[in-house]
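Archive entry: two folds, one per protein. Generate the first.
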Amino acid sequence: LKVLSRIDSILQSPRAPPSIFRPSKGPVQNYIKENGQGCGFEHLPLTIEMWADQLIALKDLHRSLRKLSLELLPWNTKDPQDNRESIRVEDLQLIVDAILEELEHKEKNSQTQSLQTLSAIVSHFQKLFDVNSLSGVYPRMNEVYTKLGEMTNAMRNLHELLQLDSSAPPTVVVDTVGKLCDIINKNVTEQVQQLLGTQDIHSIINKLEEHECFFPPFQALIQDLLCLLEISNVDDILPAVQNLK
């Protein structure tokens, strides 16, 4: 009776689950009440077995949470308390709260670091491309993107014109263009030498000076003849003079 009374007081506690007490129905309940014995606890053995299983599972859950805590909080060297006979829900809640607090702290730090990194990137861009204000960053980015596209197209066209591999670096392109310019300049010099009939640069200079001395008076003479003969083409000068004979 004392045991039943103790159980009855526990079941009537506000903290007790509402479905734990299931009163029997019918004449059996009246008979037991008349004899002063409790009733309605026939299902308690199964419930107690379930509680025992849950307590064991609670201990396993505590062990798993401790492992997770050591992974996320390696500096936390407190006693895992895996050998305790009883594990309370409060113990599990403390571990979970510590893990959540650390995750929130890491998230805040990550956001702060991201903002610092972005600020550093923007500042570096401003220094590289001489941007004085944040409002000028986007226009300069667009300008750089446009220039980069133009240079890329130009380099691709040069690769094709010079018959270079697409992987050839810009230095190779510049060297090839330089060699091509040297060849062109050499050919032009040779053509000028052939035209003027000399291989000496000083002779070329002398001939150009002679041309500068001779050509202006000759041009003036031709203009006077055109006016005097009343013609407009140089080719008509000789026929007009012959007609005067």
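Generate the second and append.
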Amino acid sequence: QIGFTTDPRMARSSPYPTDVARVVNAPIFHVNADDPEAVVYVCKVAAEWRSTFHKDVVVDLVCYRRNGHNEMDEPMFTQPLMYKQIRKQKPVLQKYAELLISQGVVNQPEYEEEIAKYDKICEEAHARSKDEKILHIKHWLDSPWPGFFTLDGQPRSMTCPSTGLNEEDLTHIGQVASSVPVEDFTIHGGLSRILKTRGEMVKSRTVDWALAEYMAFGSLLKEGIHIRLSGQDVERGTF
């Protein structure tokens, strides 16, 4: 299962995401990602295979995602049973640290010192990022497309036809997007809070990304334009 949003039976025709590699007869290593040393070992074997035989090799890290896609996402909405199991799992770092401490390879103060050292690197980088005032687009583009950017990577000014809607239509779409279409239907408490917040936004004439997306899709549907969404998050909607 990739992430948590798509059940395996919906996503592909076999239980392993790596089965496609059988088409080219590539060796496939399945490794427990809770065991860092096994992961490193398998990756070394894979690298040696590549350098020796110049053929593809695939490593399948058997692992899980502890949190949602981002800070706003709650995986318990769509996969409550799996996430109850995940909550019980010790994090990989904690497992490995306990193993090394029990073997006498490191002691608790040394472990805590390394964690603090890494946290400091992250915090300092985060603080430095706030000083950046200019976004250097061209550093990220190997060949800036002239339709969007000038040759030195700066955005072109572009015009587009007006796609605005009157407020009455937007309010209608917002009200539909913040309501439950079926009567006497019990929805998840977290979702009901989201719908309530969305309804309040419509009343206060404000939008966030999710509501703006709903209004865009809703306005196209109201005009009779069919919309087909693809991708693994479309069934559960935006975050």
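Annotation attached to the second fold: Residues 1-87 form one domain. The chain has eight helices and two strands.
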